[in-house]
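Quick one, T. Sequence first:
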Amino acid sequence: MNARIEPLHEEAGAPASTTHHRWLQLGLGLLCMMSISSPQYVWTLLTKPLSAKLGVPLPELQITFSLLIILQTFFSPFQGKLIDRFGPRLLISLGTVMSGLSWVLSSMATSTPMLYLTYGLVGGLGTGIVYVGVVGLMVRWFPDRRGFAAGAVAAGYGMGAIVTTFPISASLAARGLDATLWLYGIAFAVVGFVASQGLRVPRDATTPKASAVAGADARDLRPSQMMKSPLFWLMFAMMTMMSTSGLMVTSQMATFAADFGITKVVVFGMAALPLALTIDRFTNGLTRPLFGWVSDRFGRENTMFFAFALEGVAMALWLMTRDNAVLFVLLSGVVFFGWGEIFSLFPSTLTDTFGTRHATENYGWLYISQGIGSIFGGPLAALLHQHTGSWVPVFSVGITLDIVTAVLAILVLKPMRARFLSKAIV
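Structure tokens:
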């Protein structure tokens, strides 16, 4: 007997009630994403104390970060299938608890294999469930505003660490590494678990407005069908390139800031690195709903071209002015503003192209690209720096990837997708 647990749906009611309910869902999804953001976005603050505690060099330690992202992404198709089958509340509840628990367990780690298992494995699987589940749910609740909705909840993942960066930095100095991991791990698990209890699946993921989206829902392709299309693999390659560039900065920022002489400098009355990280979290979050909203109105590929090129230019200026602490802080915010929008532009573009019915599982397959990017942007970037003794080659690779991806968006992706959708409509 093939038992199936049906996910909870919203109650049928007036359109106004439905509209209100979907904004409530957006808020709850945002809280869930905020609760899982610190393992990735505060990692750079933990590298030095972890390296000192475990007595390992940075490239070996950065494997933890890559494992977090790889496991967060590589298992996401399977997690998406489970979420579609059993509903978001059960799976996302489990994911938020696993994410918080990973920090609690990491506080007890006495070797890198233990850290890989706790911070990497448990944390990666937990955050992956939550991230894919929430994004997949929101593109179904908002078929007429997919870019904005995906960006809004992704902003929770990008901006969630705003409220924790300074407190965690202060806690590391006052309480030490282990107590900080334990305390904040419990807090993350509680907040995420409570917020996830209100998540629901919409009764009908389509609305009349959805048909106004160019090509939206022209066909609902399963992952096996989607992956036969060269269009999917182009998106996959583009997201991999952007993830490599962005995750290089995310995972290595504290290290190259120290090499640039920034960590002991005060800017605007505050320590430069925590200030830069806080600004980064804000711009990294703001860009997601903002560029998602722009793409809803002016086209996905046009928005990609501008945003990706913006990051490439900002990274080049950042490198050229790396000895100026004020510009380091300000330009870091611009760099993240040009990167974070990939988490609204790619899922909305994918769903516009291949349909909503399998949106969660389909995005799970695309999301694997971030895991590949974490390998290039994490330990491999650290090894490149170690072998060359300079951050210039590392930054040069990231800048090149940004510019190439921007060009691909406007010159290759845009015409390919137009042809694909025209055939789908016919």
